[in-house]
Design brief:
The chain is α+β, with helices and mostly antiparallel strands. 29% of the residues lie in helices and 28% in strands. Strand 1, helix 1 and strand 2 form a beta-alpha-beta unit.
Length: 398
């Protein structure tokens, strides 16, 4: 039986672990959190940090694995690429994956290859940051270079907000490097979604509208709605820019996650391309709407199997992935969902139980649960996603 090493065992990674089992592989998980729920679905678990590349490499050698996956995880993606490259397993170039998962290097790459890019600076100390930030125009975004799930990210509009934002960003950076970039005003919805590169070509992509809760912080996505409402012309232009990026990075096979803005100047800003599947149930929604199961293709690609049938497919219906979240801290009691929404939920998972302490939503680590909703129309879907607090809210214990 072939062996596959899955980096991580969080809620969002369970679907990939189960798929690897379903495809008949011996599934090994590893991370530094033995209580993560995904590990119970694996054949074996090892307590090794997914960001410790040398330790993961040694484990992979000992276990004689046939493939490695960092599903829905930017921090783990470099380790997966590093191990695959060292052991001659299927994967993308380590250097390219490192660029895509380190925001300072990614911004440099965009500038060097003539992509639209916000002006940005990076620093390894607060004093260096403050000095370099004088070259930026407000508002700008402060973030760690190597975190994910919008953790440690703040939009600041004046100098009085800077100290707290710098401290927060450094606290989430493993490499202790922080970046600031001028805020890109968007025209319409931010473009989210996933894609898949096959033999160097963007063989499949399914774009979404990204939604934020401005009552919390307006930075962390609360979900995505599918399909993206932009014109075919806009989507084709975005597709071509992504392909140009893939060519420059020599990306070969695997999943991609997108965060893209059309600026008010009309330029396509590829804010981030994650070299992995998206979280927030994006692959699950994509499979429901298009029939293309990117989770399955991720496992097959990692194991060097043929990717037959991977091609663009016309979507059917209106779907949203929705992140259940709190707008203020307290003790969790229940989630209230309006009846018309509840009857349209096709998948739901609550991560918290009554009495648990919860926080206001400031990063993916404060997720209370997830659901997938199928709507009757595009207007109904966008109304819910843009006004979600009217239809879903958290009940707190007294």
């Amino acid at each position: 039986m072939k062996k596959i090493l899955m980096l991580g065992g969080s809620y969002f990674q369970i679907v990939a672990i189960k798929m690897a089992k379903e495809l008949g592989y011996h599934v090994i998980t590893c991370d530094y959190l033995p209580d993560n729920p995904g590990h119970k679905f694996a054949d074996e678990y090892h307590n090794i940090s997914t960001t410790d590349m040398e330790a993961v490499l040694e484990l992979a050698k000992q276990l004689k694995i046939d493939g490695i996956v960092a599903y829905a995880s930017d921090p783990s993606a470099p380790a997966a690429a590093y191990v695959a490259e060292k052991l001659g397993l299927p994967g993308n170039p380590y250097e390219s994956v490192h660029i895509l998962t380190h925001k300072d290097r990614y911004r440099e790459f965009l500038r060097d290859n003539d992509f639209a890019c916000p002006r940005a600076i990076s620093a390894t100390s607060s004093n260096e940051f403050r000095e370099k930030a004088k070259s930026l125009n407000y508002p700008f975004v402060i973030k760690p270079i190597d975190s994910s799930g919008s953790k440690g990210v703040t939009v600041i509009r004046n100098e009085t907000q800077m100290s707290e934002a710098i401290e927060l960003a450094f606290s989430y950076s493993r490499d202790k490097v922080v970046i600031a970039e001028e805020y890109v005003e968007k025209d319409g919805y931010q473009i989210a979604g996933d894609g898949f590169v096959k033999d160097g070509k963007l063989a499949f992509r399914y774009f979404a509208n990204e939604h934020f809760d401005i009552t919390v912080n307006g930075i962390v996505p609360i979900g995505e709605s599918f399909p993206y409402i932009g014109t075919k012309e806009v989507q084709d232009k975005v597709h071509n820019e992504i392909q140009r990026l893939l060519d420059a990075l020599n990306m070969k096979n695997g999943a991609l996650n997108f965060d893209i803005r059309i600026g008010t100047d009309g330029r396509i800003q590829i804010m981030e391309v994650g070299p992995r599947n998206g979280g927030n149930l994006i692959p699950e929604v994509t499979a429901m709407a298009t029939g293309v199961d990117m989770v399955k293709y991720t496992i097959l690609a990692a194991m060097g199997e043929p990717l037959d049938g991977l091609e663009d497919s016309k979507p059917n219906g209106y779907y949203s992935s929705y992140i259940i979240h709190a707008t203020e801290p307290g003790k969790f009691k229940n989630v209230h969902v309006e009846p018309w929404v509840a009857e349209r939920i096709v998948a739901k998972d609550i991560w918290k139980k009554q009495g648990d302490d919860i926080k206001a939503f400031s990063g993916s680590d404060q997720t209370l649960g997830t659901c997938i909703i199928k709507f009757d129309s595009n207007d109904q879907m966008l109304d819910f996603m843009d006004n979600d607090s009217k239809y879903v809210w958290i009940e707190y214990e007294s």
